[in-house]
Design brief:
The chain is an alpha/beta fold. The protein has a domain of about 190 residues: Rossmann fold. It has 14 helices and 10 strands. Helix 5 packs across helix 6 and helix 8 packs across helix 9. The longest helix has 16 residues. The protein starts with a strand and ends in a 5-residue tail after the last strand. The relative contact order is 0.13. Belongs to the peptidase S33 family. Keywords: Hydrolase. One of its GO terms (molecular function) is epoxide hydrolase activity. It comes from Aspergillus glaucus CBS 516.65. This is Epoxide hydrolase N-terminal domain-containing protein.
Length: about 375
């Protein structure tokens, strides 16, 4: 595996101390923008204050670092980009190579709950995987692109080369958010190597002239609300990434709010009181801060498809998925899609939808739309 270098996360104590001091030096405004702000102006003020206090008083960076470092990490230069990746190899001889691709405001760590069980399943009957989790260019110790115009299709080409360097001539892919576009490229153009695909995000248009089901009506309403009231972060990053990037680069509370907002706006509200969710937000904010990636992580927004063009992009013939793929639709995601929408974009063989609306709680592996 020529050129692949071992890597471990090792944030110097002085940098951890500096983060803590910067947090302690932060002055809160003393209250919300208006007394009855609630959630209309952004995340609730009380939520931000509580998260901030938890970061200062209860969050243990070294525990996170030690947990990540239990698994092998590497870097490799491909097309003049140094790419960071975690590689959890299975011991079983019949293990399946699996590429897992994150989005924003995620990072490689969002797969931390599964890279262990997938590579070392507890049940002898379960399938084992060689799990490869790279950071997208510009995220968490992967170089940012050295030129403008770098797209997620370019990233797909680099990740295909990475898998082949690791000896995986054929592999499967799991991805969501911006990673969806990496996976779609691999499954439409690199079918000699990408053999199976699973999405947890797949914005897709419904067939014209159909009558919407109850779930489709609700998810369309959710998507419209997202585009109308929650898309400001994307507009900033796809138009002025230098402006907001420089403002946040050395600003841990700024990173926390910019990242944390999406964690609570694109997730099931019932899960947000779980301490593990708070831990996930603080870990992600810490990783962005320590790896200096908040500004370069914005490039996918600047260089790729705008949100209101997602559905148009996926039905273009050249972007049609040519390998078998599955999709799990989560209602609280930003653009939950129905089976009959997603199956228009490729060779769909598996669909699982969830409905979580007032008075409804339903899961199905067949059709919930």
């Amino acid at each position: 595996m020529a050129g692949i270098q071992p890597f471990q996360i090792n944030i110097p104590k002085e940098e951890v101390d500096r983060l803590n001091q910067k947090l302690k030096d932060t002055r809160f405004p003393g209250g919300p923008i208006v007394a009855d702000a609630g959630t209309r102006y952004g995340p609730p003020y009380e939520w931000a204050q509580t998260l901030y206090n938890t970061w200062i008083n209860d969050f243990d960076w070294y525990s996170v670092q030690n947990d990540i470092n239990k698994y092998p990490q590497y870097t490799n230069s491909i097309e003049n980009l140094n790419i960071f990746f975690l590689h959890a190899r299975a011991e079983r001889p019949n293990a399946i190579p699996l590429l897992m691709v994150h989005g924003w405001p995620g990072c490689f760590w969002e797969f931390s709950r599964v890279w262990g069980p997938l590579s070392c399943p507890s049940d002898d009957e379960d399938i084992a995987f060689h799990v490869v989790v790279p950071s997208l260019p510009g995220f968490c110790w992967s170089d940012g692109p050295h030129r403008s115009g770098w797209t997620l299709q370019d990233t797909a080409r680099v990740f295909d080369q990475l898998m082949k360097k690791l000896g995986y001539q054929e592999y499967m892919v799991q991805c969501g958010d911006w990673g969806h576009f990496v996976g779609r490229e691999l499954a439409s153009k690199y079918t000699d190597s990408c053999k199976l695909l699973h999405f947890n995000f797949a914005p897709s248009p419904l067939p014209p002239g159909v009558e919407y089901t109850d779930r489709e009506k609700t998810t369309v309403d959710r998507e419209n609300d997202w585009l109308e009231n929650h898309i400001g972060y994307a507009v900033c990053m796809r138009t002025r990434p230098h402006t907001i990037g420089l403002a946040l680069h050395d600003n841990p509370l700024g990173i926390l709010m910019w990242v944390g907002e999406k964690f609570i706006e694109a997730s099931n509200p019932e899960n947000q009181s779980d301490p593990s969710w708070t831990h996930a937000i603080l870990t992600t904010a810490s990783l962005y801060y320590f790896s200096n990636c908040i500004m370069s992580s914005m490039l996918p927004y600047y260089e790729n498809v705008e949100h209101d063009k997602f559905a148009e992009f996926v039905v273009q013939p050249e972007n049609r998925i040519k390998v078998p793929f599955g999709y799990t639709s989560f209602f609280w995601d930003t653009e939950p899609s129905s089976r009959r929408a997603v199956e228009r974009t490729g060779e769909l063989v598996f669909y699982r939808g969830s409905v979580m609306m007032p008075g409804i709680s339903l899961h199905s592996s067949t059709r919930v739309d």
